[in-house]
Amino acid sequence: MATPITSPTSTESKLTTETFRKCWTASTADNNLTLHGFRRFKTTHLINLRLLESEIAEMDHAIYQAGISLGISPSPTDRLGLRHSKKDANVPNIEDTITPEFTATLRDLLKQYDTPVLTESCYADDALQAFNNIMAMETFALIDDEKQASARDDLNLHEVYKTRLLRVDLGTRARTDPFQRWLHRYLRAFRYWSLSQRSENNTEGLGSLLGSHCRWSYQDTILIAEVVGRVTTALLTAVFLVIPLAILSHQPSKNVQLVVVSVWFLVLSFLVALFLKVSSFEMMAVAAAYAAVLSVFVSNVPGNG
């Protein structure tokens, strides 16, 4: 007997239509924040990882207890520290613990936890690697995009400020300078403060506060922080080249010249290490290049002993 096909109810159809309407609006937006902004579900990912970790930890304990119960002497180096491992009072029989079902469950959990698995068409990263990829992506605050924020009736202004969305059209934050991240954070905080001031006399809800459908406000804090960071770095570079050279050109004493070069060299090295994301080798290269420029200028300036 054939199973009757049930048609969706009117409520389900309305919910599906409304969901599609929101997805269509976001997927055809003219602004990059709305078009490429996706939720990252950070807490949910972490809960999933912790649950997997807990299940694997129980199986890991069972494996170690089964191994210790075999009575095999540890290797001479004993890198795992098996000689100091604590044995449970009642260890189940190894035939009852290490079973084909146990092995299959362990493999499945490990695959979900941290192992890339080969699917029919591509490699798919699972829990740990997926979370690492997500957390490395550029983010912006939901408060930067009034259009998406106004659609979230379940969030208040502070929650909108704290919610982070991913920019899937940009690269990772692996090379983002700390200075740019600070700018990014302060720009978000300023926007939140500005909207908080507006909300004091607003009684119509978050949607009314963030504007109407005819005029939406956007703040691309990633782009602003990047531009301001580059301009500031260029200006500081000019300052650290022009000012010490101007001082050295009017200073005949070699001792004073040495002090000037040392001070500016130390200050530049400290600022580069603090505000820019550079490796140890890049830090050495920057410091050496700057010291070379100043030392060449000093060597060409006649001075008194």
Q: Could you describe the 3D structure shown?
A:
- The protein has about 300 residues and is mostly helical.
- It folds into 3 domains: about 40-70 and about 90-135, no CATH class; about 140-220, no CATH class; about 225-300.
- About 60% of the residues lie in helices and about 5% in strands.
- The chain has helices at about 10-25, 30-35, 40-70, 95, 100-115, 125-135, 145-150, 155-160, 180-200, 205-210, 220-250, 255-275, 280-300; strands spanning about 35-40, 115-120, 125, 140, 165.
- The strands form 2 sheets. The protein has a 3-stranded antiparallel beta sheet. Strands 2-3 form a two-stranded antiparallel ribbon.
- Helix 3 runs antiparallel to helix 5 (about 100-115), helix 9 packs across helix 11 and helix 12 (about 255-275) packs antiparallel against helix 13 (about 280-300).
- The longest helix is centred in the C-terminal third of the chain and has 29 residues, at about 220-250.
- The chain is flat, with a radius of gyration of 30 Å.
- It starts with 9 loop residues before the first helix and ends in a 6-residue tail after the last helix.
- The relative contact order is 0.08.
How would you state the average pLDDT, rounded?
83
Number of domains: 3
Distance between the termini: 108 Å
> What is the H/E string?
HHEHHHEEHEHHEHHHHH
The largest β sheet comes out as:
3 strands, antiparallel
Give the number of DSSP strands.
Answer: 5
Described by the principal axes of the CA atoms, the overall outline is: flat
Counting H and I runs of at least 4 residues, what is the number of helices?
13
Q: Please estimate the helix content.
A: 55-70%
| Secondary structural class | mainly alpha
Indicate the proportion of strand residues.
Answer: under 5%
Radius of gyration, taken over Cα atoms and rounded to an integer in Å: 30 Å
Low confidence ranges = 116-125
Order of strands in the sheet with most strands: 1-5-4
